[in-house]
Amino acid sequence: MKEHIKIISRRSTLAKIQAKLVGNTIKSKYPKIKIEYSWIKTIGDIDQKLDISSGSSMGLFTSDISKKVISSDNNIAVHSWKDYPILENGYSNIYATINRADMRDILILKDSLKNLKNIRTIKIMTSSPRRRYALNTHLKNLIPLQFKNIEFHDLRGNINTRIEKFLNNDVDGVVVAKAALDRILNSDCNDTIKNNINTCLRKHHWMVLPLSLFPTAPGQGAIGVEVNNKNLEMIDILKTINVIDIFKNVKKEKEIMSKYGGGCSQKIGISIWKKNNITIQSINGKTDANKVLQSFEITERPIKVLEDKTTKKENAFPTNKKEQNIFTRINKNKNNQISKIDNAIIYITRKNTLIKKPRFNASCILWTSGIKSWKASCRSGYWIHGSSDSMGESDIESLFSLIQRKNKIIKLTFQNNKNENSNDINTYELKNPVFPNDIENREEFYWMSSFAYEAAINKFPSIKNKKHACGMGNTYDKLLSLINNKTNLTCYLDYKSWKKNLK
């Protein structure tokens, strides 16, 4: 067993944090191994004039470090995996990764924009063709501001440098990786850097960009541990710390990107992750041949349920919009109560929870359950901070590192919510469910909420043992606890994707 390992990485604050995360993970498995750290500047760090968005930029932040790994059996390298070239050098490779940080991008916009209704041009700092393409495609629907175009400004440097350039230049926005902010804010690094980030997030409006619309660079948020291919002993050590699912997902992201040429020059984002033991894949962008790529889908399930498309559409429920609206809705004016909330995360569960257009305290973070509710909120004039992307409320916990505290979470929801907690505010009531006369003859059901499911089985108990489906979030968790035969339940990204699965 090795007694000594030298971990090599870049000199940036973030790189050092990531290297020590790997070192601590190895120490937790092998406490007797001595860990030494070595920091170097790569060609990408030294030459700030290099175009990192060009096709020739691959390896700018990794190749100098890789040489050190190849030359010594004691050396391993820790990289931001997104920086590591897709094509192998033949002498060393990534053999392990640890837990992946939040892979999403975060867009920070000057708070002064909130005072505007119309603007000709928004100036955003980013050198990434992928980010530029996605922002040009989707940003207009995600902020309540009319603008003609986006003017992009190149941006280089570490996180602190990027934040300072954003604050000190005549620009409106900057895009950075959320993983970088999270890791720095959760570390014991230089207080100045932390203070700069915290000040920026407090003073300006930020948005966590959803993966369904803004998939990231392959490997973003993941740490890659590189070792010499001949160093079998070290490879065996790394196998014991490797998080297999994340390793597999990043390799797949890289594999897909390689089909389009790879590198930072591509206008393509690819993200793969797991939820409810299901693998989800998002691809968005445009190839060099100007082919538009846009997919958001489930690619892998542990159990094949409902995958054979045996159910005809006419034998499923609901098959149309009329059948979806089974309740009578009674809106409630809770604006006075809502306006008194401060320093909270307000979770907007449905696009129609804001029908009375309440006023929110500026100290509150507005988070939506899905993209539809985000867009609807923007049309009503609200500045949204992000969305659970229809994946469930647990995603809200990802905000605590950004805001550096555990804010109370207040849901705007409906009155008949059985699991309501004291913080919930009921902005509407659902009553008097009406179901089709032939509902007991239907074979397969998609539920928008567990409340709808319970209303149905209370009236028609015979449907309980039939096939059921729902979205990826809280409804799935609740139905899982209510349905006896778990194989009768599966989840989809949304109602539309379920309907496509019918025969």
Q: Helix/strand/pairing class, anyone?
A: alpha/beta
According to CATH, the homologous superfamily of the largest domain is Periplasmic binding protein-like II
- What is the tally of beta strands? 23
As for the CATH topology of the largest domain, it is D-Maltodextrin-Binding Protein, domain 2
Side-by-side strand order of the widest sheet? 15-20-19-16-17-18
Question: Distance N terminus to C terminus?
Answer: 57 Å
Given as residue ranges, the uncertain stretches (5+ residues, pLDDT < 50) are none
**What is the molecular shape?**
globular
Number of domains: 4
Gyration radius, in Å: 25 Å
State the helix count: 16
Q: If classified by CATH, what would the architecture of the largest domain be?
A: 3-Layer(aba) Sandwich
Rounded mean pLDDT score: 90
Biggest pleated sheet? 6 strands, mixed
CATH class of the largest domain: Alpha Beta
* Helix fraction by DSSP (H/I, runs of at least 4): 25-40%
